[in-house]
Specification:
alpha/beta; Rossmann fold; seven-stranded mixed β-sheet; two-stranded antiparallel sheet; 6 helices; 9 strands; 17% strand
């Protein structure tokens, strides 16, 4: 995929998403003067929402270096009820333990996703039960669906055979799950893969080989490009 052929729907102005199809990312960003920022969700419930402190920084750098998308330099941390929520086209949620969202947060996340936002959830190990419970509150009539290896998210920029497995966890295969609204995937959940850890600074997980880290990098780029073009 050519760097200059990426198109996206991007936030311009306070609290609005604008559907700008057929316009190159760099042109949109230069016109708006706002680089893309990925926000990490500060949630309640006892889980370590603050994990992966270097993941988003490195993810944003990969996007700058490999796609020419103009990005911020580091993560932003927000709560789902913050008035700045709609400034961020991609949200990141990570952790090992329990997630518990308030009714206001559930409503805010539902509205955000239906309005064009995208949520990437990285299971750091032990997140699965509470995350699935909370997603049933966000979309009560849906269940997380397996995302087949033929889905566009695995070839939106790099050609991948599916979700790469970065860390062992329980030795289960890496599995991607999605939630959809009006035919658009609005939540992508990486289970038993740990893409986030594969993006951290190399000294955080020194046992990760360069090859494994490269797979995590490619998947992260694919997720962002998919989110910004759909």
């Amino acid at each position: 995929m050519s760097k200059n052929s990426i198109v996206k729907k991007f936030w311009i102005g306070c609290f609005l998403f604008c559907a700008l199809m057929g316009i190159q990312v760099k042109q949109v960003l230069q016109a708006s003067g706002v680089p893309i920022t990925i926000a990490q969700i500060h949630y309640g419930g006892g889980g370590d929402w603050y994990g992966d402190p270097t993941t988003i920084k490195n993810w944003l750098r990969l996007l700058r270096d490999r796609t020419d998308i103009e990005t911020a330099r580091d993560r932003v941390i927000i709560k789902l009820t913050d008035h700045t929520l709609y400034q961020y086209p991609i949200l990141y949620l990570v952790g090992h333990g329990n997630i518990r969202l308030t009714e206001s947060e559930i409503e805010a996340l539902r509205d955000y996703l239906k309005s064009g936002g995208f949520l990437f959830v990285n299971d750091d190990y032990g997140l699965d039960k509470s995350f699935r419970r909370e997603m049933r509150r966000v979309f009560p009539e849906q269940e997380l669906q397996p995302v087949p290896n033929t889905h566009l998210i695995y070839r939106s920029f790099y050609e991948l055979q599916g979700l790469p497995k970065i860390h062992e966890h329980d030795a289960e295969p890496a599995q991607g799950f999605g939630l959809f609204h009006d035919g658009r995937m609005v939540v992508y959940y990486a289970y038993s893969a740990d893409i986030g850890d594969g993006l951290e600074d190399a000294d955080v997980h020194p046992d990760d080989t360069p090859q494994v880290r490269e797979l995590a990098a490619k998947m992260a780029v694919n997720i962002a490009v998919y989110a910004l073009t759909h």
